[in-house]
Amino acid sequence: PAAGYVAFxxxxxxxEFADKxxxxxxNFYSDLKLLDKSIVxxxxxxxxxxxxxxxxxxxxxxxxxxxQVADFKTATKYNLSLLKKFPKxxxxxxxxxxxxxxxxxxxxxxxxxxxxxxxxxxxxxTNEKDFPKITYLTAQLKEKMGRDRxxxxxxxxxIKKFSSKVEGHKPVExxxxxxxxxxxxxxxxxx
Length: 191
Fold this sequence. Notes:
The protein is an all-alpha fold and 191 residues long. The chain has helices at residues 2-11, 18-31, 35-48, 55-68, 72-85, 92-105, 109-122, 124-127, 131-144, 148-162, 170-184.
C-alpha cells in the first residue's frame, strides 16, 4: 500500500489528498521497518506540503525516524524545527527533553545546557521530578566544558535544593566533586 500512496502523489501532486497519501506512505513504510523509505516520504511531505495540517505530526515523526536510525544530529535538527514552528505543541516537553539528551550525547554541551534550563523553566508542572537529575547533569556538563566555577555553583545549588528530595548518594557525590574541583585548581601563593 505504501508504494500506491507514493504513486498517487506522483500522479496527482496537486490533489487535496496528496499530503495525506504521503503521510500514509510514511506510516506504512515505518510499520514495515523500511525506515529509509519512510524518511524519504516524510522529507518529501515536509518539502512539498509545508502548510499541511500534518506538518507538526510529520516533523515529530521525522525526528523519531532519525532517532531510530541513530542519526541524532538530524533528529535534533527536526526537534528544534518542531519547537520553533509549533511552540504550543503538546509534545513540547518530550521533544525538548530528547533534544538536550541528544545534544549531550554528541557533546554539544552549550546547547544541551541551554535546553535543559529551558526545560526546567517551561516544563515545571509536568516534569519537576526530573529536575534533580537535570541540575546534576548540568553541573557535570559545565565541568566537562572546563567551567569549574559554574559547576561548583550548580553542585552547591543541587545540594541545597534537592538533598532532601533525592535518594541515594548523589548529594554526597556532588560534595565530593566540589572538593575534587577545588583540589585540582592551582594553589595561590599568599604573599
